[in-house]
Write the structure tokens for this entry.
Amino acid sequence: MDQPLPIPQDLPGAAAAYAAAGICVFRVRPDKAPFANCPRCRPPSPTRPNPFYIEHRPEECRCTARTCHGFHAATTDVDLVRQWWAEQPDANIGAPCALNSWAVLDIDPRHGGDQSLAVLEQRVGILPGAVMQLTGGGGLHIVYRTPSVALPGTLGPGLDVKHNGYVLLAPSLHASGGRYRWSGDGRFRQPVTPWPAALTPWQRGAAA
């Protein structure tokens, strides 16, 4: 996807737009409880039979992926995404970082993330510009292309690295009542800037 992607303001439309653009997405409940998304856990419907379904409670799930009711079920299957959001129109939109080849710097000012970022940039220099998303809670996601090395979970108070987990995508609703949105004109752009080398573990160790 080379062209900026306009994001519909409704969650079902936005989820389908992301999937059509090749972004793996999955449903996230407002209370962050898991959905049953994977084949063994997804109940059949009149329009979509599922011979793999095994009836069970989520807490009794025995699928090989321990979070099969979450981001391991993310997909670009537009028809399936439309079915998911037809079932739950108010579901937030989750995107697994690693599966989408993203590494996200999550800045949460409520926990000192802006100060941590300032300290970090004093040490390693100004970070390269990248795709940014404003979170509904006043934070910021800086989205880079993932490196081929393991990354730490945090770089300081309120400054987390999302790589093996997931992030919510616009126009998901934050617990504070605000909505996520992409910076600038609000359109989504596929991240192309690589994760800053200065933030890889060996580079930080060498700098120390």
User: Anything to note?
Assistant: The first helix runs from residue 11 to 20.
